[in-house]
Amino acid sequence: MAESITITDNRTGQTLEIPLENGGVSAADFSKLLPGVWFYDPGFTATAACESAVTYLDGDAGILRYRGYPIEQLAEDSTFLEVAYLLLNGELPTTDEFDVWEQEVTLIPSSTRTYASGSWRASTTTPTRWACWYLR
User: Fold this and answer.
1) Nearest to 46 by CA among 56, 59, 36, 34
2) For residues 112 and 136, is the Cβ–Cβ distance under 8 A?
3) What are the φ/ψ torsions at residue 39 (nearest 5 degrees)?
4) pLDDT single digits (tens) 66-119
5) Where are the domains of the chain?
6) How many CB atoms lie within 10 A of CB 10?
7) Sheet arrangement for strand 63-66
8) Measured between alpha carbons, how far is 47 from 50 in angstroms, rounded to an integer?
9) pTM for the whole thing?
């Protein structure tokens, strides 16, 4: 077996070897040893909900990246539409790609475009998404 840890339930003496995957252990494998026991992790400091190719977050180090780009760089140097393109396509658009993308987005009603072009900077993402959906 590759890298693993061995866990022993001191109540029963049962031992279970769990492989390390991507630097962590599978909660499903761990729960085989402790059925009915839940894990308390305030602030999700040691919990991974998923692997993401879109977002990287290290709160202790103050790092937030989208598709590898620091959030500070995106906030300072990119428009809303450029970041939307990045999230959907994995890279910031070239000038030609952006021109095509901008034309595709113009199919969105003007009220939504107006809201998305400015108000999103002063709002969290969830209300912005709901407002854009509602205004469509």
Assistant:
1) 59
2) yes
3) -110, 130
4) 999 999 999 999 998 999 899 889 999 999 999 998 888 876 666 666 665 665
5) 4-44, 52-105, 109-136
6) 6
7) 55-58, 63-66, 69-70
8) 9
9) 0.49
